[in-house]
Amino acid sequence: MSNPTSIDALARQSFEDYVAGAVYEFGAIAVDEDDVIGFGNQFDPQPFHTDPAAASQWHFGGLIASGWHTGALAMRLLVDHFLPVTASLGSPGVDELRWPRPVRPGDVLSLRVTILEARRSTSKPDRGFMRTHIEVLNQHREVVMSLKAMNLLRCAS
Amino acid sequence: MSNPTSIDALARQSFEDYVAGAVYEFGAIAVDEDDVIGFGNQFDPQPFHTDPAAASQWHFGGLIASGWHTGALAMRLLVDHFLPVTASLGSPGVDELRWPRPVRPGDVLSLRVTILEARRSTSKPDRGFMRTHIEVLNQHREVVMSLKAMNLLRCAS
């Protein structure tokens, strides 16, 4: 099994391009303090996401990104580097979403994606079902978020 | 077991205010087309989240919100109406996150939260662990997102 470290947009056109066992790594995306605070104020206004002074007194010891912000940043990396541009049919859901370490301003995130399963639908043979294990890594290669995702992809033939 | 339909901020100060079996309903938050497109462009630039014309040709039949956007909107409702303002210690993770129906511009979302489990930590007795079943409902009271969340909360005594 080859384990490429990136997947070119031209090589991700349809379900058939995704094979169980393959591992991809790609990124990176920087986490900016203004973005952490902005996302926090809009969607998750808890002091450890929005107020650096208050956050420094909290048990995290400083500002951390909302878990939903980290998820959204990971989604951006998936769309830019992994999912098929014209064959993505959305996701029924996600399992085992975890935030084992905080994401802090200044961190740089990248993704490691392992394809766990890829099978053609029997009821709708124009599409396939994929399960992936997605790990979000910081610049120290520590896992800051992980999840198991499901995706539906259009087949080429 | 009482099943209040809202939980006042003054009544949610610490872990002890959360009891297994209680059900809360609250909201609402409106989903705006500009916000759907803005979130999509920033975090999930797939055509069914960002391009109304392309989305109308897609199998969803129109623009839909990114699942991470729906999650972020649900988080806002949790912070505003359910989690304890000064006793929230973050979340280790989420299980069984599902998006059974699309969220469309113009939808109005509310939350139904059932407390599945609330137990004091034995290793760290100043905090408690809570598991909830969270359902995001649209204005037709259809479930558009559901998840099982874990939260750590500070105890009052």
SSE layout:
The structure is a homodimer of 157-residue chains.
Chain A (H helix, E strand, L loop, with lengths): L22 E8 L2 H11 L3 H4 L1 H6 L9 H15 L11 E6 L9 E13 L6 E11 L5 E12 L3
How is this structure best described in words?
The structure is a homodimer of 157-residue chains. The first copy, chain A, is of the alpha+beta class and 157 residues long. The first copy, chain A, has a domain at 9-32 and 73-154: Hotdog Thioesterase (Thiol Ester Dehydrase, Chain A). Chain A contains 4 helices and 5 strands. Chain A has helices at 33-43, 47-50, 52-57, 67-81, and strands at 23-30, 93-98, 108-120, 127-137, 143-154. A 5-stranded antiparallel sheet of chain A has the order 1-3-4-5-2, covered by helices on one side. In chain A, a hairpin with a 5-residue loop joins strand 4 (127-137) and strand 5. The first copy, chain A, is elongated. The relative contact order of chain A is 0.23. The model of chain A has no long low-confidence stretch (mean pLDDT 92). Chain A binds chain B through residues 39, 42-46, 48, 59-60, 64, 66-69, 71-73, 75-76, 79-80, 83, 88-100, and chain B through 39, 42-46, 48, 59-60, 64, 66-69, 71-73, 75-76, 79-80, 83, 88-100.
